[in-house]
């Protein structure tokens, strides 16, 4: 059913009854909270706050209008709507009825709210909201690559749909409209590193469907994942990842990363990421050995990883060395992030096969042993 029909039917059959305050609603299991239409209204107009995000700046002027503070039953919705829209940076209409208003919170921060054009009172006007902020290089190492490869990103740090409207497809509508607005402005859309049940479902089932490019962020690197991988439990609540990211037009450098990762799977352990931010790419990692010396001495990514983990000081703790584990044995590509560069190293075949000695060419039962292909490492500076 079209959303416009849902809106019309619900508003005509029965006025939506709202609770007096958020305190009367118990928190839903596995969700950020069961916020009502009235609490969504309060969040948009900054009558109260449910998160530690930026201050609302210019939006504070709205609540100073006489009679609006907490007076949800006012019926002059048209006047209210005109004033709100006059303060919006963008008003996006849809064929399905709801409209999306983009309101500026502060420098680089925006509140995107979906509104009901059939609302009877102002308390029923705001249906849901998403708050986004522009990603800065110094914010969250996991998304900083978005800036370093010239891919500006907006990060969702709060999303909510009123409980009265949940289960009717409005969450998808909200995410879809915000994504279209963000990409029309040249931004990627990213999640933060904390998702609840509703937003996790949106990022793992819906966003991979509507985005041309989709991935996870791991130690400063954007790694592509498939729609099928997004559904895996390892991604749902960010085990070993820093967030999701969706976008339409990757810049040249990111296309280079994606090209070199084509056909490989992060979930199968074929792509590894190592953060070596304490080092410069051309300076020694250990003794007089640079990363390029280690690459020259290795014939495969697992062999290179074993050397790095066992010999190079690595991680947050000074002098820490991590053991090589079985999970790295499937690695075909490793992305190394240095202080001044990013290096992608992958295993390639030389086209030759190893020559086995005569006593190693057959099994004990007499079956011939197939010689292994000879491999080498190639590196690409990103």
Describe the structure.
This protein has about 375 residues and is of the alpha+beta class. The protein folds into 2 domains: about 5-260, Gcn5-related N-acetyltransferase (GNAT) (Aminopeptidase, 3-Layer(aba) Sandwich), CATH 3.40.630; about 270-380, no CATH class. Helices cover about 25% and strands about 25% of the residues. The chain has 11 helices and 13 strands. The chain has a 9-stranded mixed β-sheet with strand order 1-2-3-4-5-6-9-7-8, with helices on both faces. It has a 4-stranded mixed β-sheet with strand order 10-11-12-13, with no helix packed on it.
Overall structural class, as computed from helix and strand content, comes to alpha+beta
Number of domains: 2
CATH-level-2 architecture of the largest domain: 3-Layer(aba) Sandwich
| Sequence of secondary-structure elements | HHHEEEEHEHEHEEHHEHEHHEEE
Tally of contiguous helical segments:
11
- Provide the gyration radius in Å: 26 Å
Major pleated sheet: 9 strands, mixed
Order of strands across the main sheet: 1-2-3-4-5-6-9-7-8
Number of strands: 13
What is the mean predicted local confidence, pLDDT?
75
The CA-CA distance between the termini, in Å, is: 47 Å
CATH topology of the largest domain, anyone? Aminopeptidase
**Beta-strand residue percentage:** 15-25%
Helicity level: 25-40%
What ranges have pLDDT less than 50 throughout 5 or more consecutive residues? 10-32, 48-67, 138-149, 316-323
- Kindly report the oligomeric state of this protein: single chain
Reading off the top of the CATH hierarchy, the class of the largest domain is best stated as: Alpha Beta
